[in-house]
Amino acid sequence: MEIVSRVLSGDRRAVAKLITMVESFDPRAERALSELFPSTGNAHVIGITGPPGSGKSTLVDKLTLRFRDQGKSVGIIAVDPTSPFTGGALLGDRIRMNEVALDKEVFIRSMGTRGHLGGLATTTRDVIKVLDAFGKDVILVETVGAGQSEVEVVKTAHTIIITEVPGLGDDIQTIKAGILEIGDIFVVNKADREGADNTARELETMLSMNRYENGWKPPIVKTVAKEGKNVGELKEHIDSHLKHLKKSGELKKLRKEKTREELFDILRENIELYIKDHMCEKRIDDIIEKIMRCEMDPYTASEKILEPIKKD
Amino acid sequence: MEIVSRVLSGDRRAVAKLITMVESFDPRAERALSELFPSTGNAHVIGITGPPGSGKSTLVDKLTLRFRDQGKSVGIIAVDPTSPFTGGALLGDRIRMNEVALDKEVFIRSMGTRGHLGGLATTTRDVIKVLDAFGKDVILVETVGAGQSEVEVVKTAHTIIITEVPGLGDDIQTIKAGILEIGDIFVVNKADREGADNTARELETMLSMNRYENGWKPPIVKTVAKEGKNVGELKEHIDSHLKHLKKSGELKKLRKEKTREELFDILRENIELYIKDHMCEKRIDDIIEKIMRCEMDPYTASEKILEPIKKD
Questions:
Q1: A41-254 CATH fold
Q2: Tens of pLDDT along B244-279?
Q3: In this structure, what are the phi and psi dihedrals at residue B96, rounded to the nearest 5 degrees?
Q4: Distance between CA A29 and CA A307 in Å, rounded?
Q5: Is B1's Cβ below 8 Å from some Cβ in A?
Q6: Range 71-110 of A in CB contact (< 8 A) with B
Q7: Could you tell me if A305 lies within 8 Å of chain B, comparing CB atoms?
Q8: Taking CA atoms, what residue in B is nearest to A269?
Q9: Which of A19, A87, A76 is nearest to A45 (CA)?
Q10: What is the pLDDT of residues B201-250, one digit of tens each?
Q11: pLDDT in tens, A79-120
């Protein structure tokens, strides 16, 4: 496909167009991704999540500058699954640092929710693939919040950074308990604020309850992203984590897991499309009416719908 | 099935056993649910969600007493999707009010996360069906937090109550923006705390931006659940909402939507089981290895896997 060769030759506009195709479920996107696939697998994908107001975007900008200093090209994907109902893209309205936004070696894309469960992680995965094939050395996936869909999004990354901020109180901690287990590096940002040491200590206590069977103990870094303070240290931890993944064989394991998840996600989506294509809306409506009149239960209905698919 | 007739005849132990079967994906559960199905559709299902510490459980207990005063039997399902990784059930450890817990006409069940996306809503739906067939007039589904999986859980209800609490700050408001659109009734609990009027006003402002095309304007109730203050008023709003659903025809529309969602969820799950049954792990592993060596892309792999299913 023409768009694929354009992406591979470094055409930014082709990249933007292909991502739009991916986001809008254009049927040509899958063929393009299929052709792009052999050119992927080179980028280091870094996921960053944490509560709103913890300064993730500033952190991403400052990290980007560090990677650029090293001559690495960077892709940034900012995902906002805050509202599963309106499709609003909060992060899209945000203005990035000029230094980052105007750099031709940095590609930035904002994504709002697609409104269906699990879909956001799939789309993120596909956008990562486009930027990977486009030749980005580092891809930063930034997502707001700490709910289950955000977890699914950051789990597309090789290295997961969780940001915290002093003074958000106990309630937030409770919400976030589930996310601690997936973090590779923890950041207490806005560390010039009162309570930063406390927050770091709390994190340490919570983390000490986890077991690290893969040989990596997540470090906790105190940063003041706005002033660039300790961003260099954070960058070093990111590099160390990648080295650890490669050396320990974890990277291969991680890639295998992720490939499996992706394969099953694609299978699910394809089967759903297949059912919708092979059954007219009218028949589905009839079955729903029958269920509502209690003439059929949904389990039997599902069997009936799948019968011809399994046989013909 | 024997367990079904026992549930229908009011045997509490059979209900508890069937719910455990549902939770543990016992293959007999589906047959039982299928047999139970004609006896469902009578309960008023009420969902309650909100941030941790907003007093949902106390509110649920006090509401239960009100429904019991009216002679209605009550089922309570407490769902905790906080941690998608550990499977811990926070609410399960909580001790309910004695008055509620010892009442033979009240059935209480705590549920932790099942660890897979979307699964918690399906399980909740099935447990609701068991309690519905068991003869409960009112089923209260209580879930902590306000992420996407919590939203999916409360969306199983006919009437959705969102609880707020004074003084949680702006960050929480941002996280919760997406949930406002699904609330039928809003509660500012712990309204004896400073800032309750402010929180109610903020809610009102945020709600005023929504359009209500179905003719129901969500009321905001200030309660002090611990003292039972205004719980009666809340109960009246719940009853009014049910009346509104019935009178406006919204209940039928709602039931149709929910039936459709459920049918497709069951279809998805059954297809996945079918694939896993019809493909040995070895072949799936081979395909994953090929994808990792870039000899095949996941889209083509998915087509290859589905080919025999679509044909044979």
A1: Rossmann fold (3.40.50)
A2: 999 999 999 888 888 888 888 887 777 777 777 777
A3: -75, 160
A4: 31
A5: no
A6: 81-86
A7: yes
A8: B268
A9: A76
A10: 888 887 877 667 778 999 999 999 999 999 999 999 999 999 999 999 99
A11: 876 543 333 334 443 556 777 888 889 999 888 755 433 467
Q: Which H/E stretch holds residue B111?
A: strand B106-112
Partners of residue A51 in chain B, C-beta under 8 Å:
171, 175
B41-248: CATH, from 3.40.50.720, 3.90.245.10, 3.40.50.300, 3.40.50.880 = 3.40.50.300
> CB neighbours of B163 closer than 8 A, spacing ≥ 6?
B48, B49, B50, B51, B54, B55, B56, B59, B186, B187, B188, B189
Interface-testing mutation among A152, A266, A273, with chain B (most B C-beta atoms within 10 A): A266
| A85 contacts on B by Cβ (under 8 Å) | 178, 181-182
Q: β-strand A220-222 against B44-50: which pairing, if any?
A: unpaired
Q: Is the dihedral of CA B193, B210, B208, B155 positive or negative?
A: negative
d(CA A216, CA A211): 10
For B143: left if phi > 0, alpha if psi spans -120 to 50, otherwise beta; the answer is beta
Q: How many residue contacts between A and B have a Cβ separation below 8 Å?
A: 196
3-state secondary structure of B160: strand
ipTM value: 0.71
Question: Which residue from A166, A162, A124 is spatially nearest to A146, judged by alpha carbons?
Answer: A162
CA-based R_g, chain A, Å: 22
Residues 6+ apart with CB under 8 A from B178: A82, A83, A84, A85, A86, B146, B151
A138-144 β-sheet, strand order: A106-112, A74-80, A138-144, A44-50, A159-164, A185-188, A220-222
Contact (Cβ atoms closer than 8 angstroms) between residue A126 and residue A29:
yes
How does residue A174 score in pLDDT terms, banded at 50, 70 and 90? very low
* A-chain residue closest to B31, CA distance: A299
Here the tokens at position B302 are 């998915």
8-state DSSP, B183? -
Shortest alpha-carbon distance between residue B103 and chain A (Å) = 31
CB contact under 8 A, B33 and A292: no
C-alpha distance from B41 to closest chain A C-alpha (Å)? 9
Cβ-defined contact of B85 to A181 (cutoff 8 Å)? yes
CB contact under 8 A, A297 and B175: no
Cα B281 to the chain's mean position, in Å? 34
Write out the two tokens for A67: 């990677």
Would the CB atoms of B297 and A33 count as touching at under 8 Å?
Answer: yes
List chain B residues with CB under 8 Å of A133: none
Of A170-174, B35-39, B241-245, minimum mean pLDDT range: A170-174
Span A234-293, pLDDT tens digits: 999 999 999 999 999 999 988 888 888 888 888 777 777 777 777 777 788 888 888 888
Query: What residue ranges do the domains of chain B occupy?
Result: 1-39, 41-248, 264-311
Dihedral sign from CA coordinates of B152, B154, B159, B162: negative
Instruction: Please tell me what DSSP assigns to residue B105.
Output: T
